[in-house]
Every structure is written in C-alpha cells, then in structure tokens.
Amino acid sequence: MSSRPSVGSTPVINFFYPAIKGLAARPGKGDDSRNRIRSVFLAHMPKNKITRPLKIVHVASHNTVSSGGAIQMMRLALGLKELGHDVCCAFNIKSRDNPPGLGTFDTLLDNGIKIFSFPMQRIKKYQGMIRFRKFLSSGKFDIVHTHRFRALNFVRKASLGMEIPVLLGNKKNSFSIPPAWAKIYGSKKVDSIIVNAQSIKELFIKTKKVDPAKVAIIYNGVDLESFHPGVNGSHVRKSFGIEDSTPFFGMIANFARKKSHDLFLDAAIKVIKEMPDARFLLAGGGDYQSCQNRMIDRGFGGNFIFTGFRTDIPDIIASLDFAVISSKKGEGLTGSLVEAMAMAKPVISTDIAGNSEFVKQMETGLLVPPGDVNMMADAMLFFLRNREKAEKMGGRAYAFVRDKVDNRKRSECFQDLYYKILNRKLMGS
C-alpha cells in the first residue's frame, strides 16, 4: 500500500504534448482555430499505440463520499490504481466542510490516492475554476473523467482554450436531460458519456443531440471481497435485539426525495398488521427524524430501526432477510440493490430504470409499480410466506450479478475505454 498522501499537493510529471502548450493557451476563434490546435496536438503525439500506465483525474461535484455516485467513483479510482495507473480525485468543497470530505476520503487517502478540493457552486466556483485550470495545466492528465453534469460543466468552463487528451462525462440517474445539457454532452470536447443502464442511454438518444456511439453502458461496481453471501450479519441483528427467527426487511438509501421512503414505510405498516413481529431497518444519511417520528406517532416505533449513515453496509445487508428499494423516479441502477443481489439476498424493487434490467420478475427478485403501496406490501408478504422461493431468487440474483458488477472487471472496462479513445485520437481517426 502506498504511503498516505497529503490533501492538496499538486503532482507534476513530464507531459508528452509540449508543442501545444502555448497554442492551446492562446487560441483564435472558430472551427479553423480548433482544427489547427487539433492538428498540432496530433502531429506531436507518438504514433505507436499507447499502452503505458495512464495519468487519470476523477472530478466529482460531490463534496463527500457518502452517496451512490461518489462511492462508485471511489471504487473506480481504487480499481484503476490497482491496475497500475496514476490516479487522483478532485471533489467539490463547501464552506462548512472542515476538513474537506468530512472524514469520508480516508479510504482513498489510505490507498495512496491524492485528493484535491475545488469549490464548484455559486460565486466561489469562479475562483475554483481558476485554481482548477492551473491544476490541469500542471497535472498533464491523459484522462479527465467527470462525475455528474455539474462536474463536467465545471471542467468544460475551466479548460476553455485548453486541449484535454480525453474528457469523459457520466449520468447515473434517469431524470430527463435539459436541451442545454444535451448540447454540452454532445459537444466535440466530450469524448464519451458513461451510463449504468440502457434506459439512460435511451434518454440521450431521445435528445437527438448526442451520438449514440458516444454513450457507453458500464454497470455499477461492487467489491465482491466485501459484498458476498458468506458475510455474517448475526452481530448486527444481536446489536438491534432481533432474534434469528424475526422477519427482517431493510432499505439502504440516503434520505432523499427520489428514494420514496414513505412508500417503504406505508407498505411496512400493512405488513405489520398481518405479521406484528416483522422488523424494518432504514440505513442512510440525511434527515430521517420526520420519518421516525411519524412511525412513533402511529404506534409502530418499535418495528422500525433508523440507523443514519453507516460504513458497515456489508454487515448491515448480511443481517437482513430481504432488501427493498422503493424509489419512484430518478434512479439509474441503485447501488445498494446490486450489493444485496451480490450477497444473494431476495430483493424487491420498484420497476424503474436500470433496476428492472437486473431484477427479473420471479427470477432474480420482485418488481412492483412505482408508488404502489399495496403491491409493495404484497411483495413483502409473498417473501414472508414463500421463504424457499425467496431464497432461490436470491441465489439466482447472485449468479446473475457477480460477473456483471465485479469492480475489478468494471475497472478493466474503463481502462479499455480510456485506451481506445486515447489511441483513436492519437491516430486522428
């Protein structure tokens, strides 16, 4: 393991495109200038295929590693470093963040991945862009991989007049794409857009502003050494005072509107009325007090456990009998759903976006219509009354996902994509 780096120190290595430094910094106007820069850029690149380790920066508009997108970025950064690449991460920073990342960067730092912070919102973003431009200039990165549109737009503005060898964007939710965003995603400066579901790729196609060949589908990554059926969660059940025979459902999701915790809670109450000993766990960051108080006020407080943000998610999932996702809209492919499937847990999900690409009805889990409380409750009761069928679905879910979400294989997919784009541009094709 590499020694832990400090936050904020800027790495410098020799860049193999020195001829365009002055030209890219002082471009003219219009297509002729862009073509001139591109021609000089290509002319001074080596003509042999690039296979050496790459210098990569991941740029996120997240300010912590506590939500699905940031966790996926962290796993990719770790996977690419394990493959031998020089990887660092740049995050957003907010005024209240002391220290940067609020302690959530430790895994990256402990694995030798440098962290940099730039304000990306409101008036402070302009100062952040100036600093980031200098960071790009000195860093000489082969790959700039952005996560979320805000990060892509931040990099785009900060790098005006600069040539980035490879620039990637991503989209991991199924909200509609505004025309102005589609224009930026479809611009020549953006080499590829990564999505984690076919349904999200179709959103880009519908805009008619993005070349479908530019959109690559690469599913979420899971650390299969941490998330697997052999994890023992008995100590978690014991800590909550839950007997082995007690039915135990759980939902792992930050408390955000799109997660629709109210649907999960209302369905759970219907289940409790038929099976009073059933227990329900909700783990995730955000303000859960209103949900917890509502359950207490309705007389069901003893059936629910609200844990807040947890770092021991493999143990939490292992303690469950069944995993549930109740989102109504906006999801891409829910990370905790895939993690539960990788641990052979029977899963219930609303029929949205990428989740329906993984949960095959009555094969790898149960799907219910978004917002349908009665169907969600019926699915929970079905699992309780058909334990053997539920366990078989969990086994099939594990077999379905283990090769699709292995984080090492996912990292290799990104590595292959980086080399493909870099070498295609090297040859000028």
Spell out the blueprint of helices and strands.
Layout: H1 21-25, H2 30-43, E1 55-60, H3 68-82, E2 86-92, H4 106-110, E3 114-118, H5 124-139, E4 143-147, H6 149-158, E5 166-171, H7 179-185, E6 192-195, H8 198-207, E7 215-217, H9 234-239, E8 248-252, H10 261-274, E9 279-283, H11 289-297, E10 304-308, H12 313-319, E11 322-325, H13 335-342, E12 347-350, H14 355-358, E13 366-368, H15 373-385, H16 387-401, H17 407-426
Parallel strand pairs: 1-2, 1-4, 2-3, 4-5, 5-6, 6-7, 8-9, 8-11, 9-10, 11-12, 12-13
Helix pairs in contact: 3-17, 5-6, 10-15
Explain this structure to me?
The protein is of the alpha/beta class and 429 residues long. The protein is built from 17 helices and 13 strands.
What brief labels describe this structure?
alpha/beta; Rossmann fold; 429 residues; globular; seven-stranded parallel sheet; 2 domains
Give the structure's gist in a few sentences.
This protein is of the alpha/beta class and 429 residues long.
Shape: globular
**Beginning-to-end CA distance, first to last residue:** 39 Å
Q: What is the string of helix and strand elements?
A: HHEHEHEHEHEHEHEHEHEHEHEHEHEHHH
CATH topology (level 3) name of the largest domain? Rossmann fold
Q: Looking at this structure, what is the CATH superfamily of the largest domain?
A: Glycogen Phosphorylase B
Report the CATH C-level class of the largest domain. Alpha Beta
